[in-house]
Amino acid sequence: MGAVPDTITPASRGLNRQILSLALPALGALIAEPLFVLADSAMVGHLGAVSLAGLSLASTILMTTVGLFVFLAYATTATTARLFGAGRRTEGLRAGVDGMWLALLLGLGTGALLGLAAPWLTDAMGAHGPVAQAAVAYLHTSCPGLPGMFVVLAATGVLRGLLDTRTPFVVAAAGAALNVAVNAILLYGAGMGIAGSGAGTAIAQTAMALALVRPIVQEARGAGVGLLPHRRGLRASLGSGTPLLIRSLSLRVAILATVWAATALGEVSLAAHQVVGALWNFAAFALDALAVAAQALIGTALGRAQRADETASQAADETVEEADTRNASATAGWSIDELLRRMLIWGAGTGLLIGVVMAAGAGWLPRAFTSDAGVIAVTTPTLLVAASALPLAGVVYLLDGVLMGAGDGRYLAGAGLVTLVPYVPLALLIGSGAMPGAAGSTSGLIQLWVAFAWVFMAARGATTYLRARGTAWRH
Q1: Which of 273, 391, 394, 449 is in the most buried spot, having the most CB atoms within 10 Å?
Q2: How high is the pLDDT of residue 170?
């Protein structure tokens, strides 16, 4: 695990290199996670349609559960980055250790509850008979891996706080390879069927957790930090993570409202929505990677500004006016303002580039997913709408990352709830056919994606931009 750099170079090229050095490995780690589901789907698919349908249902439940606890990564990134930036290395490692303990405890509890609730959840989602049995079998064998999954999130956050995104990338890539190997043994060699796929994923995630925890434990021992959990630290980690959990829930509500509306528009619209959503989510990986870099760099910069403030405030000959001038400079200097501007340029530029590529391929990209002429006809114009909003999405993702890096979770939680106000009623109106022209498959889905990609994303952008342009989040 690399040491934390003492300074962030103000030179444009140096700053750009640092952004890329964090974002590219983060992108690799983000892509590795969907590879687990892809590998499982490819291998389970050879067992038959029933097993594949069961995997689709079970993985949806599992990934939704894990997605709600992604705050474990965000919260630990913000906390550790700020403490390390402030030169409080021991406290940063202490916070990281407590964050991983909290992840382990939450994983154990969630895994037990999900295992018990698996039959009820599959029934609630409309699955019955062999498909439900297959889904429950996968959930029962994959649930023991939830503690590992959660620890991976928290440990990744600690390493990001140390400005190390390479280690999570290497571990994620190795974990994806291990998942394929273990799945092959359990599915085909041991004849466990879909249950073997769940067990293989659990084993791979547990191994990843151990691999990520190891360097952090070594750092903690070297700094004289105890490895047992502290009650105060657990409470602090939970307190900083709860607002981000609320934010995650608000995003899930928006996604569920979008899926409901697409379903209500008919099977052609739903199929086209799946294609557009898959391409949008793929683009989001690149934007998310930049947001990860923003979290780490902003958290570190704020920590360094705090350290500069504390050091200078000890000067006995400093006047109040000089202190005010110095505090403003330390907080609003290049290390924060220039970093913010540069990251936003990267976000908007990356979104624009991906949007241009997506728009250029709108005529043929849908054919990679389906040969149905009706679905292609609906997908192509909808994809153009999605592509047009990607520069905006790039800014939104970056501003999210900035505020997360600043530990501004409470504001993000409130903002997340506010953004649902204009979007959810609009999505429901479109899905119910109450909006003029929404009855047709093409026009209805286009309206839905205008609402999601422009109304919802614009609401997110407005709330985060208004916050970022102020200074309250810097303290």
Answers
A1: 394
A2: 92
Predicted TM-score of the model (pTM): 0.80
Q: How far is CA 303 from CA 55, 216, 293, 469, in A?
A: 44, 20, 15, 19
pLDDT at 330: 39
For the segment 113-121, the average pLDDT, to the nearest whole number, is 89
Using alpha carbons only, how large is the chain's radius of gyration in Å? Answer: 23
Tell me the CB-side half-sphere exposure of residue 297, using CA atoms within 13 A.
32
Torsion of CA 254, 255, 261, 267, to 10 degrees: 180
Q: Tokens for 68, please give them.
A: 């709600």
Integer Cα distance of 199 and 389 in angstroms = 40
| Residue range 199-226: mean pLDDT, rounded | 91
**Angle at CA 412, nearest 5°, toward 410 and 417?**
100
As separate numbers, helices (DSSP H) first and strands (DSSP E) second, the chain gives: 17, 0
Angstrom CA distances, 7 to 3, 82, 268, stand at 12, 14, 54
Rounded Cα gap, residues 468 and 462, in angstroms = 10
Q: Mean pLDDT highest for which of 173-182, 329-338, 425-434, 445-454?
A: 445-454
Do 309 and 475 meet the contact criterion of CB atoms below 8 Å apart? no
* Amino acid residing at 355: G
46 CB burial (10 A radius; 0-12, 13-18, 19+): exposed
Count how many residues are written for the chain.
Answer: 475
Instruction: Give me the torsion for CA of 433, 438, 439, 440, rounded to 10°.
Output: -160
| C-alpha–C-alpha distance, residues 107 and 110, integer Å | 5
What band does 353 get if pLDDT is binned at 50, 70 and 90? very high
Supply 69's token pair: 């606890």
Residue type, 431: G
Q: Report the distance separating Cα 427 and Cα 445, nearest Å.
A: 10
Within 8 A by CB and 6+ apart from 222, the residues are: none
Nearest to 247 by CA among 403, 60, 40, 371: 403
The C-alpha atoms of residue 403 and residue 247 are separated, in whole angstroms, by 12
d(CA 64, CA 164): 27
Gap between the Cα atoms of 38 and 150, Å rounded: 20
Task: For residues 277-304, give the mean pLDDT.
Answer: 87
- Burial of 260-296, coded b for 16+ CB within 10 Å and e otherwise, reads ebbebbbebbbbbbbbbbebbeebbbbbbbbbbbbbb
Average pLDDT, the chain: 83
Distances (CA, A) of 78 to 91, 133, 266: 13, 41, 43
pLDDT digits (tens, 9 = 90+) for 10-61: 455 677 788 888 888 888 777 776 666 667 767 776 677 677 777 777 877 8
